[in-house]
Amino acid sequence: MGFVSRPGQSYDRVLLRKHLLKTRIAGDVATPREGNLEHCRRMVAKDPGFQFGLVLRDWTFRETLDTMVGLCGVNPDPAYTHGQDTIDADLTLDALETMGERIGQAARNREKVLLATGHPGALMGVYRTVEDALRTAGCTVLTPAAGWSYPVVTHTGPRTREIVYTSGVAAVGTGGRLKHTHDPDAMRAMLAELRGGTEWPDLVIADHGWAGAAGEAGIDTVGFADSNDPALFVGRAEGKILVTVPIDDGVLPEYYGPMTEFLLDRAGLGA
Fold first, then answer.
1. What are residue 250's DSSP bridge partners?
2. How far is the C-alpha of 68 from the C-alpha of 66, rounded, in Å?
3. pLDDT per residue as tens digits for the range 120-143
4. For the whole model, what pTM was predicted?
5. Max CA separation in the chain (angstroms)
6. What is the pLDDT of residues 177-217, one digit of tens each?
């Protein structure tokens, strides 16, 4: 299961904003500026590892940085090249509210939903909590292509990644261990299995390449992205991603509990 709500505790915008800043999910985040700028350059250069499965138009570096300022809240000064970067907590809250509205629509209409994460260590609890709420509301949580595998090259040599489900949340793993990934391959395999059938998803809740590949397939896609994930914000700007919530996606898992409660409250699925 996911996070457990605290009786009597409600997270409105003011209280959650304080929590986001205190835990550095937003505000002065730990994500380094030099990495953010490098990822923007590599996305602009159409490096597949930084496209997240999206087919994007040609973007300049400055256009990309301006988009990251407007949708994520990074430092707008291109001359600021080293140090920590920022995420605007109000942009996080706005996106959480919009994401919550779309999840609420899915719950009311009992839609078919896919959930997947490239950050299983930090974010699995968020997805599992949302999954539980959607199942309770009568949604169908799809779990296609379990066990499908593909080769990758890591710093320790060639490896195999396979689709692994934690309840109804997809991730990739090797030898029983869940792994961080930016790859779109697994989502593409999941959609290939579903294509042409009756179980095509109405909504995908995801991050990294899982979200990019789903958005590129034309599915309503909502999810999370760090300030070093420019493709998902650019995908939002192009209209391929419905909602991209800016967060530091590498803080302690328990810090995301209040954020998740706020999200579900906005979806009408709170305790």
1. none
2. 5
3. 999 999 999 999 999 999 999 999
4. 0.94
5. 51
6. 999 999 999 999 999 999 988 899 999 999 999 999 999 99
